[in-house]
Amino acid sequence: MLEASFTVLNPLGLHARAAAQLVRLASGFKSKILLSRPDTNAFADAKSILSILTLAASMGTVLFLRVEGEDERDALEAVDRLFGEGFGEI
Amino acid sequence: MAKIGGVIVSHGQVATELVAAAEAVVGELDHIAAVSIGWHDDVDLAKEEIERAIKKVSQGIGVLLLTDMFGGTPTNISAMFLKENEVEIVTGVNLPMVIKLASHNRETTLSDLAKEVEEQGKQSIYRTSALLEPQKMRKDA
Hints:
The complex is a heterodimer. By secondary structure, chain A is an alpha+beta fold. Helices cover about 35% and strands about 25% of the residues of chain A. Chain A contains 3 helices and 4 strands; from the N terminus they run βαββαβα. Chain B is of the alpha/beta class. A 4-stranded parallel sheet of chain B has the order 2-1-3-4, sandwiched between helices.
């Protein structure tokens, strides 16, 4: 199991299209990918868009990621890149 | 793998636009159709249109109709097609319900999916100001 934390960098936050991008990326991995938001105790499955949207993560929100599975390292790197690039919006 | 089909039925263009919005989020949806019933449309014509849409999206394992408002004409006409294991209806459609219907990908039965979509629709409604008052929310809970 791997863990990491990210800050939402895109100005519009983790909105519907960004969440859809994350779902498409996450669904390509076998690992379980869980996002959590410590300030509200909210959890989300990174493979479910409706689940991600309930995090209501705006710009600057810190999210924790937990990845577990055979391809966890690749999955973590891919998600890290997506967040780092601000979902292509910055 | 066969997918459960979906038809969104509404007054005016709401259905068409809901499907368009869902497609903008999750990609093209060839197993979901929209039927917009005009305010002055003939009931028989509307019924035929819904029937055509059901046939178009059906892959043999059921079709879920999502209508805009319980008691309204789109729901009442849709109700004529209710049939166990073949056609189910959930009313009060919103965008999260369409996305839920669009993104179901595991083996599920029509009646289970109908329940999940109903639940999703209800859970997706927030009084947003309540989310900005975490202290108060804890007290309410």
